[in-house]
Each structure stands twice: as structure tokens, then as C-alpha cells.
Amino acid sequence: MRAGPYTIYYVSGFQRGPRGQPRQGICAEPGFTLVELLIALVLIAIITVLMFSGLRLGSRAWEGVETVSERVADLRVAHNFFDRTLRQTQQHSLVFDGTMVPVFAGDAESLELVAPLSEHVGIPGLYVLRFGLEDAGEYPRLVMARWLLHPETLEGGDDHPAWEPLLDASPLFEDSSPLDRDVADGAYGRTVLLPEVAEFGLAYFGIAEGEQEPEWFEEWLEQPRLPLKVSLVLTTPRQSWPTTVLELPGAAATNFGLTGAGQPAGPDADKPPRQPAAAPGDTP
User: Fold this and answer.
1) Where are the domains of the chain?
2) How many CB atoms lie within 10 A of CB 79?
3) pTM (2 decimals)?
């Protein structure tokens, strides 16, 4: 059809293909509707939020596990140190005010003994070790003071106190020596074993002077021999630990708990006294 200078062409929906076969015209492929796109975006957002929430939850759980592990590790290290130290305890006496005094002494909340320390702490050698609690706010801390077993160190100096027997000593750890730092060229120091202590208790099993059979005592003072065992209760505000009975040198070779006729001394002969009591939650 011709109209003026322009020509109008009509294209039908079908064209002839090869060999005269009809062929359908080009049509657009069907796509997503707006609703479907919105649903897909919402699902992607939900999945992303869940993924980040899961990562955050996993990170917090891991931090919690690390915190608990650190608390348990500190308490375990303290218990292991007591175990290793008591198993290496040696019997020593020192002259104090002209009198020979046994170094090993202890009551329900303090303990003093002689044992070797490795080169990782001060100068390698034998030390007089004193354990006790020191005020530190809401909860006391467990502190160890140590003197190298040498006359010059035991006499004291400008930077560290002189050694005194546990019975005659001034209130435990009243000196102002710095914590976790060696003085006197490494011959004296004070170390924090636990920064927070909920319960610390000691008891002693052995043959006291003048006795024939071993018993449990709440203190071991001015005794000519070492006890056979020491019962230790040590917990923190956030972590409990069962009561531990530690053997001293010679305990395994001693046939304690038997009467003169070789009969058992009783079912409770080898049990610590009721004090110090076990920590809450411990199995009696």
C-alpha cells in the first residue's frame, strides 16, 4: 500500500520458513515477576542474617570455652605444683635464736617446707617455701614466698625480709616485696599461685611425736619428722576441685594404718578430718 512518500509494511506473526513452512515470529522469554523477586531477596537476606548469627554464636561459644579452660588451667597448675612440691619435700632444720627448728610446719591455712625449685624460678636449688593467703579485695589470693636455702638469703637484706619459722613469723606476707618478681639476685621472691581463692585448707596425716599410730591433724608444728600425707582443699570462686590427698617422700614405704598386731586401725584411719571441709559440689 502506498500513501504519499512513505511506504507502510505489514508484518504478520508468522513468516515463511525454509521450504515454505510457516515459522513463528521472535517472542520474549517469560521472566520473574516482581513478587518472586521480592521473595528471593527476602530469602537471601534471611540466609545472610542466619550465617552471620551462626558465626557470632560460634565465636562467643569459643571465647566461653577458652575462658573456662583458662580458669581450670590455673587451678590445675596450682594443684600440680603442690603435688610436685610435696613429693620432693626434704626434712631440714635451721638454727633460729640459737635453737634448731624443723622447717616443715603447717596449720589449716598455711604451710612451710623445703623443696627444690627448677631454674625457671630464681636460682636453681633448695628453697624454703611458704604458702598462704593474702588479702586482695573480695577474694584472697594464694601466694608463695621463697628463700634460697643459704645463710645470706635467710638472714634477709635491704630488699627482702629475713626468714622466721612459721610459728614465730609476723603475719604472713606483710612485707612489701613485689609480687611475681625476683629480688636478692633471684634468691628471694613472692609468686601468686592463684589470684582468687574461695577455699584453701590443709590437714596432715602422720605419726606425731609421742604417738604410735598415724592420725589426721589440723596442724603439724614442731614435729621432728615429716607427715606421711597432706590433704589439700583448693578452689576458686568459679571452679571447684575435689579434695586431694598428697603423699610425701617415704609415705609409700611406710605401713601406716596398722596396729602393732598387724590389724587395721579402723575404717577411718586413713581419712582426713572433717576440717577442712570439701568444697560445695564435691563428692564426699
Assistant:
1) 31-87, 90-197, 198-284
2) 18
3) 0.66
H/E stretch holding 64 reads: helix 34-87
Contact, 142 vs 166, CB < 8 A?
Answer: no
Beta carbons within 8 Å of 226's beta carbon, 6+ residues apart: 89, 91, 104, 206, 248, 249, 250
> 182: how many CB neighbours lie within 10 A of its CB?
18
Strand order in the sheet with 125-134: 105-106, 110-117, 125-134, 141-148, 188-194, 181-183
Question: Over the stretch 115-137, which tens digit does the pLDDT of each residue have?
Answer: 998 766 668 889 999 999 999 88
C-alpha 197/C-alpha 146 separation (Å) is 20
Output the DSSP codes for 27-47: -PPP---HHHHHHHHHHHHHH
Beta strand 181-183 pairing with 188-194: antiparallel
pLDDT higher than threshold 90 for residue 37: no
Q: Are 147 and 187 in contact (CB under 8 A)?
A: yes
Neighbour order of strands in the sheet with 244-247: 215-217, 199-206, 229-235, 244-247
Determine contact, residues 229/252, Cβ cutoff 8 Å.
Answer: no
